[in-house]
């Protein structure tokens, strides 16, 4: 769980660096992945192969998103946020282009199936 | 004879791969792994130097002291050379 | 993970991967902000020539083809072929490629379980996993509980997985902190002497290659 502390007392340990901390039982439930999640995974791998950014860049963005994101977003939600962060930094497209496309996607329909495009 | 190393007790703010729970702990080099691009530079989209990487073995007693679950169990982790201090430098 | 929202098990005809695997589709759930971002990012990358739809489909297909069955085949070969086992322990990447598995740039180390040694794999900093051989990791591997506790109380964690190790067995935990990935070569079960490599493959579970389990008994 997030631990509140005054930053002036912080020792420098970052939230993701969790080896050895106390935690509860390991949750054993699992699920498989949806198409949009598999697409995010594929985009990450391809962006790495094309030299747009590295898996270390992905991890850096995930870490910088903070503990609240870890607790409140699903795995691939965090991944697409981190992929996008790296692509913006790499200049692959602009925020203006992203904003316009996300708005356009929303106009296509209320579900992923209607909005997903054919890529 | 296995080479003893201590993990440096550094606390930079950014993306590093040396886990907090191993900082300051003493282990032995299990095997050298070769040189790899430094993730501390790759993470920021920068050209990265090649850094030597080692697999270092600790006993659970080394890491957790008296509180170890089983003192002779071991923990292996990969650590870059710039995070390690050699303790046997004067032995030879 | 309480925040996963995959309540829909329906498989739609259009929800098939190129290899024919059914996707667990979320196609009829309300479009989320992050799904909109995925669609937008993917389309922009295609339009700007960074990737093609065919490359994305091929990559999804390649990941779908990676599963614990690949690792099980490697393990069963090592159980039946001492020379292969020696090569696996020397260089698990090359040994996996020798068996025809496309593992990309994966740097793989195999660690061997014996009568007195049990190995366990974790990644405390994120969730590094030998995905190019075994496919995507199970959800529990990515949890705070597993990442936090596996390095400090591995025996207690193993008991939660139903594995109660005797004191004379040394536990070796491997934290995947950098460029290597790990696979456990589990000990071959007793009573399997006459079994073929294919029969042995069926005994090797995903968890037995992470170290949170042991192979099935025949």
Automatic annotation (TrEMBL), chain A:
**Signal peptide positions (record):** none
The record's Pfam families line, in alphabetical order, gives: NHase_beta_N
Q: Cite the Nitrile hydratase beta subunit-like N-terminal domain residue spans from the record.
A: 15-108
Q: Its domain of life?
A: Bacteria
Q: Which InterPro entries match?
A: CN_hydtase_beta-like_N, CN_hydtase_beta_C, Elect_transpt_acc-like_dom_sf
The entry's protein name is Nitrile hydratase beta subunit
What is the scientific name of the source organism?
A: Roseovarius tolerans
From TrEMBL, chain B:
* Highest taxon, organism lineage: Bacteria
InterPro entries, sorted: CN_hydtase_beta_dom_C, Elect_transpt_acc-like_dom_sf
The residues covered by the Nitrile hydratase beta subunit domain are 3-85
Q: Which residues cross the membrane?
A: none
Q: Name one Pfam family in it.
A: NHase_beta_C
Tell me what this protein is called.
Answer: Nitrile hydratase
- Organism of origin: Roseovarius tolerans
Automatic annotation (TrEMBL), chain C:
* Domain Nitrile hydratase alpha/Thiocyanate hydrolase gamma, chain residue ranges per copy: 35-212
- Annotated EC: 4.2.1.84
Keywords, A to Z, come to: Iron, Lyase, Metal-binding
Please list the GO terms describing molecular function. Answer: nitrile hydratase activity; transition metal ion binding
Renumbered residue ranges of the record's region Disordered: 1-24
Biased segments, Basic and acidic residues type:
1-13
Pfam families recorded: NHase_alpha (PF02979)
As its record notes, the protein acts as a catalyst of: an aliphatic primary amide = an aliphatic nitrile + H2O
Its domain of life reads Bacteria
Gene3D superfamilies xrefs = Nitrile hydratase alpha /Thiocyanate hydrolase gamma (3.90.330.10)
Q: Which residues bind Fe(3+)?
A: 123, 126-128
Concerning its family, UniProt says: Belongs to the nitrile hydratase subunit alpha family.
Q: What is this protein called?
A: nitrile hydratase
- Lineage of origin: Bacteria, Pseudomonadati, Pseudomonadota, Alphaproteobacteria, Rhodobacterales
């Amino acid at each position: 769980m997030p631990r509140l502390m005054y930053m002036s007392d912080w020792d420098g340990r970052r939230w993701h660096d969790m080896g050895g901390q106390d935690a509860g039982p390991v949750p054993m439930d699992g699920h498989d992945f949806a198409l949009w999640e598999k697409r995010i995974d594929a985009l990450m791998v391809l962006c790495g192969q094309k030299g747009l950014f590295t898996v270390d860049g992905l991890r850096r963005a995930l870490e910088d998103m903070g503990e609240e994101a870890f607790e409140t977003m699903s795995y691939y939600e965090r991944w697409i946020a981190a992929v996008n962060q790296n692509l913006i930094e790499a200049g692959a497209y602009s925020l203006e282009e992203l904003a316009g496309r996300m708005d356009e996607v929303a106009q296509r329909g209320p579900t992923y199936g209607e909005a997903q495009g054919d890529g | 004879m296995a080479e003893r190393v201590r993990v440096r007790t550094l606390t930079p703010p950014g993306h590093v791969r040396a886990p907090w729970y191993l900082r300051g702990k003493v282990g032995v080099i299990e095997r050298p792994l070769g040189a790899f691009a430094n993730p501390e530079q790759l993470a920021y989209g920068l050209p990265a130097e090649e850094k030597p990487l080692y697999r270092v073995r600790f006993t659970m007693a080394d890491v957790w002291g008296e509180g170890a679950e089983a003192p002779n169990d071991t923990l292996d982790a990969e650590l870059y050379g710039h995070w390690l201090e050699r303790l046997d430098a004067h032995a030879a | 993970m309480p925040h996963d929202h995959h309540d829909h098990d329906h498989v739609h005809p259009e929800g098939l991967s190129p290899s024919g695997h059914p996707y667990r589709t979320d196609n009829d759930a309300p479009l989320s902000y992050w799904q909109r971002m995925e669609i937008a990012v993917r389309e922009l990358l295609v339009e700007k020539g960074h990737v093609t739809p065919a490359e994305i489909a091929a990559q999804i297909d390649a990941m779908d083809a990676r599963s614990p069955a690949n690792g099980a085949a490697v393990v069963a070969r090592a159980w039946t072929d001492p020379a292969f086992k020696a090569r696996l322990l020397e260089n698990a990447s090359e040994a996996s490629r020798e068996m025809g598995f496309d593992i990309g740039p994966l740097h793989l180390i195999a660690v061997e379980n014996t009568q007195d040694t049990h190995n366990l794999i974790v990644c405390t900093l994120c969730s590094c996993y030998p995905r190019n051989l075994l496919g995507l990791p199970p959800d529990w591997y990515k949890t705070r509980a597993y990442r936090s506790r596996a390095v400090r109380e591995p025996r207690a964690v193993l008991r939660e997985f139903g594995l109660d190790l005797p004191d004379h067995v040394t536990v070796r935990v491997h934290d995947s902190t950098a460029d290597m990935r790990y696979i456990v070569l589990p000990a071959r079960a007793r009573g399997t002497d006459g079994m073929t490599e294919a029969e042995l493959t069926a005994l090797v579970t995903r968890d037995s290659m992470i170290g949170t389990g042991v192979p099935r008994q025949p």
